[in-house]
Specification:
Elements (H helix, E strand, L loop, with lengths): L5 H12 L13 H11 L3 E5 L5 H11 L6 E6 L4 H9 L4 E4 L11 E2 L19
Parallel strand pairs: 1-2, 2-3
Antiparallel strand pairs: 3-4
Helix pairs in contact: 2-3
Length: 130
C-alpha cells in the first residue's frame, strides 16, 4: 500500500485486516517505495495513491507490470475531475478510485476500466477486474 498520508494507510490497513482473509504485506509513503516493496513481497494487489500529473504513476505501474507475477494495481486519488480520472484509467490499473470526501450532490467514485459511463459507487464498496 502506497500513500503519503500515514493515517490513510493505517486506516486502510486496519479495514483490510478486519476482513480476515486479507494481509497487508507492506506500506510505503511513495511510488518508488511501492515498487521496491512489490518486488520484495510479490503482493496480489497494490493500492497506490496517485497525484497529478500521472507520469510518475505510469512509470511505477510499468515497473510493477514487469514483475512476475504482476500485481493488480488499484489507484486511489483525491481528484474527481473526469478528465484526470480518464487519464489514470489509461495507465492500466485494475481500478481507479477517488478518495475525495463525498459532496451532497455526488458520491466518491470508483471506475474499473470496464465500467459503464456515469457509473457511481462508494470507493470502499467498488470492484475491479477479476
Amino acid at each position: 500500500m502506497a500513500d503519503d498520508h500515514t493515517l490513510f494507510r493505517e486506516g486502510m490497513a486496519g479495514l483490510l485486516a478486519s476482513y480476515g482473509a486479507l494481509e497487508v504485506v507492506g506500506e510505503s509513503a511513495n511510488d518508488d517505495g511501492a515498487v521496491a516493496l512489490a518486488r520484495e513481497t510479490k503482493p496480489d494487489v497494490v493500492i497506490m495513491q496517485v497525484q497529478m500529473p500521472p507520469e510518475k504513476a505510469k512509470r511505477a505501474l510499468d515497473q510493477m507490470r514487469a514483475l512476475s507475477p504482476a500485481p493488480k494495481v488499484i489507484i486511489v486519488t483525491m481528484f474527481e475531475d473526469p478528465r484526470l480520472m480518464r487519464e489514470l484509467l489509461k495507465l492500466g490499473p485494475a481500478l481507479t478510485c477517488s478518495r475525495a470526501p463525498p459532496r451532497a450532490s455526488s458520491s466518491a467514485r470508483c471506475a474499473p476500466p470496464s465500467s459503464t459511463r456515469g457509473e457511481r459507487t462508494w470507493w470502499w464498496a467498488c470492484r475491479g477486474q477479476r
